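This section describes the prediction task in plain terms. A model, or a person checking by hand, is given the sequence of a single protein chain and must write out its three-dimensional structure as a string of tokens. No templates, partner chains or ligands are provided. The sample shown here is typical of the held-out split.
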Amino acid sequence: MRISAFIYGLTWGGATRRLLTLLNGLWQRGHQVELVVVDATGPLAKDHLEGIKLHILKQGVLAPFFPLLSRRSRMSLSKFALAQYFKNTNAQLFLSAANHAHITALSAKILSGSNLPFVLRLSSHVTASLKKSTKLSKRLRFLQAKRLYPRADRIIAVSNAVAEDLVDTFDIEKRRVQVVYNPVVTPQLLNMACETPDHPWLRDQRGRNVPVLIAAGRLKKQKGFTTIIKAVDLARRLRPIKLIILGEGKYRGHLENLVNRLGLQEAVDMPGYVSNPVSFMARSDLFCHASTFEGLPGVVIEALATGCPVVCTNSPGGAGEILGHGRFGILVPLGDEKAFSKGILQALDKKWDGDKLKARAMDFSLDQAIDGYINVFEELLRKEK
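The expected answer:
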């Protein structure tokens, strides 16, 4: 197959890393893969494009103005260049691969008049991320999505929770929505777990006298780091605990102020972006995840793949699905630091079967993802003939 996939660019983030893993896997299976981007710069530009042809959209007369615009505006205006791409490409199938790309991609296809089979990869819970948002911009995006998403030929949802919410919320037939889990667990990830993390708190293995907890993700309000920090503060009143938060973002200042206000400077470390967060998970005693919503939180799967126990908020999306609704980790109510604190203490006292956690993570392997995407693509192309 000749497959084109579209995202904004190659910035660091879970959605982009999952996509590049998938596209490389498709290439290794013998398929031709082209990645279409608005911006080709970013930390993933050098090391993650093996076998993938990169196409940077040519913005024409708009190009001189792009540096002055916000990322969202650049994405929106790229629909004209993408429409031209639709007219010229020899691809057999088009994959809109990230939530931020879908409205632009579908608008471009409509502008172009192309009949190219179109697959939309939905990785977020529509109701939680857009419909219930108090932000006007997200409410408007919800209305656009409700109008445009049904124009996709197929929708791949990253979890059953995302699929069910989409069908309930939009006028889309259930048969056109198929669930394929993200390609999280790869041989490379398992090798990375064996490396030694560069952090003084993690020089020894799990089971240390002072447990070390890990949280990871972009530092923004949605990720719930405030809940985790407050929960650690409560749990520390009963036993000593340390917390490492991996990631970077605009919310750093807020989190640092909270740490200072609670007097946790010696117990909480925020080293920023690290190239191998999995090695931290492999040495940590517990992984904490408190997002307010997630389509399928890859960091939870990564933690399980290292045999690390997990405490997680039971938020809208696939978190509970990953943990077998409590069989493979501890689920706590959303936004409740007291419940999260109890979950931390419960998890630290429990004797976990690391092999069982690792086996669960393999349900989210690269091979299962590639098989799932190929099945969707081939079924759609047979229908188009």
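For orientation: The domain at 2-183+365-384 is CATH 3.40.50.2000 (Rossmann fold).
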